[in-house]
Amino acid sequence: METWKETRGRTETWGCLDERVLTPKALGVYENPVPLTVEAVRVRSRKMDLRIPFETSFGRFDSLVRLYPEITFRTEDGRRVTGVGECSPLSAPWYDYECHRSVATALGYLVASLTGKPVEEADGVASEKEPPVTDVLSFTSRYRWIVGHPMAKAGMEGAYWDGVARLRGVSVSSLWGGTRKAVLTGTSVGLEPTVEALMGKVDRAVREMEVARVKVKVKPGRDLAYLEAIRNRYPDLPLQVDANAAYDLFDPAHLALLKDFDRFGLLMIEQPGRNDDILDHARQLAHLSTPICLDESILHAVHARQAIQLWKEHSHPSRLVVNIKPPRVGGYLEAIRIARLCCDNGVSVWCGGMHESALGKTANVHFSSRDEVDLPGDHVSQAPYFVRNVGSSPEYRRGRLTVPSGAGWGIEDLDLGD
Ligand code: OSB
Ligand code: MG
C-alpha cells in the first residue's frame, strides 16, 4: 500500500522506504557483482587525545577512543583484499546512547554475524560455510537483525566499501557516485566560558583558516552575547549554531531566546530541542525565520521522510536542514539515501562530524562529494583534531578539502598500529 508519495523531485519516494526504494541502483551507487568471501574480521582500537578539549551543552571531553573494524575478503580466484572502517562514538552516552564501550559490545555481534559463529565463540575467523557477499545490501543484510547501534554498523560498512574500492583500484567516492573533486568545509567551535575566548577561536577560523562557514555551540545563557560579538566583528560571515538539545521547546523563556536568534541572520539553528524529537521542532519553531537543522533526531531515512512531511504541514521544506552523519544513521548507503530524499524535496543537507580520526573524516569527505550535499560540513577543527592522528587528512585549502582519488579511502600513510 502506498501511503506517501512525493513527485516534485527527480525520484518518486514511497512512505515505506525499505530497501525496495532508494536502492543502490536508483542512487547511482556501485553494485558489486563479484562474490567476496569474508575470511576474517578484526577490530582495533586507539585512544586519542584531542588538541583542543571540546565543550558542548552535554559535556566536555579531551580524549576519545576510535575503533577500526577490518575485514579480509577472498575472491573466487583466491585474491585477498582488506578494507577498514572507523567507528567514532563519544566516550560516554552524551550525544546518543552509544559510547566506545557499547560500540565494542555491538561490534562483537557484528563480527559474529559476518563470520557465522555464535557471539561467545566469535574469534574473527569466519566459518567455512558462510556464503559470499556481493553488493552492499547482501553485506548489511548479514547484520540487519541487530537493532540500533548505528556507529558500530557504520564502521563495519566502511570496511566493506574500502575493500570493494581497493579490489577495483578506485576511490570510494567513485563507487558512491560522488561528483565533486573538492568539498566545502566549515568548523565547529565548542562552548567557551567567555566571549573573548570564543572570539579567539572564531578569529582563527575566519582569518587564518578561511573556513567556508563557522558553527558555534550554544546553550541558554551562552548564546545571545556570544552571537552579538561574532556579528559585530563579522557581519557577513556564514554562521550557524548547534544547541545539542539544550533548549526546552515548551519553555517561554527558551522560545524567546530562539526567536531572538532571527536577528543574527544565521544559516540554521541545529537541534535546539530534545534529541529524540521531530514533531515539536516542526510545530514549536514554525514562527522562526531561521531554518531549523536536525542532527540527533534523524537516525534513518524514515525519520528524514517524517521530518520533510512535518515541515510541509507546519512550515516549509526550505526551512528544514538535515545534518547527515554517516555514523549516526548506521552507514554510508543510508546517508546517501537520506541525502537524495532531502534533495528531492528541497531540503538542504550537509555532513556533520563526530570528531572522527583521519579515516572517518576522509570517509565523510567521500560522502560529501555527492552532489546532494550542498552546504559546508564539519570536517576541520581550529587546530588539528588530535595530538597524533592515524594518517593524513585530505588536503585543506581555504574552506575546501580535496576528495582523495587513490584506491579505497585514498589515505596513503594510514597507520593503525597492531
Ligand atoms: O553535534 O555536531 C555535533 C562533535 C561530537 C558530537 C556531536 C557534535 C560534534 C561537533 C563537532 O559539533 C564536529 C566535528 O568537528 O567533528
Ligand atoms: Mg550537532
- Rg result: 21 Å
Strand and helix order: EEHEEEHHHHEHEHEHEHEHEHEHEEE
Number of strands: 15
Report the average pLDDT across residues: 95
Alpha plus pi helix count: 12
Heterogens: 2-succinylbenzoate, magnesium ion
Helix content: 25-40%
Low-confidence stretches: 7-11
> How far is the N terminus from the C terminus?
51 Å
Main sheet, how many strands, which sense, barrel?
10 strands, mixed
Strand percentage: 15-25%
Class based on secondary structure composition and strand pairing: alpha/beta
Taken from the alpha-carbon principal axes, the silhouette is: globular
What's the arrangement of secondary structure elements?
Blueprint: E1 5-6, E2 13-14, H1 24-27, E3 37-56, E4 59-74, E5 80-84, H2 100-115, H3 136-140, H4 150-168, H5 172-175, E6 182-189, H6 195-208, E7 214-217, H7 224-233, E8 239-242, H8 252-260, E9 269-270, H9 279-284, E10 292-294, H10 301-314, E11 320-324, H11 332-344, E12 348-351, H12 358-368, E13 377-380, E14 396-397, E15 400-402
Parallel strand pairs: 6-7, 6-13, 7-8, 8-9, 9-10, 10-11, 11-12
Antiparallel strand pairs: 1-2, 3-4, 4-5, 6-15, 14-15
Helix pairs in contact: 2-4, 6-7, 10-11
Bound molecules: 2-succinylbenzoate and magnesium ion (MG).
Residues 95, 188, 242, 244, 295, 352-355, 378, 381 line the site of 2-succinylbenzoate.
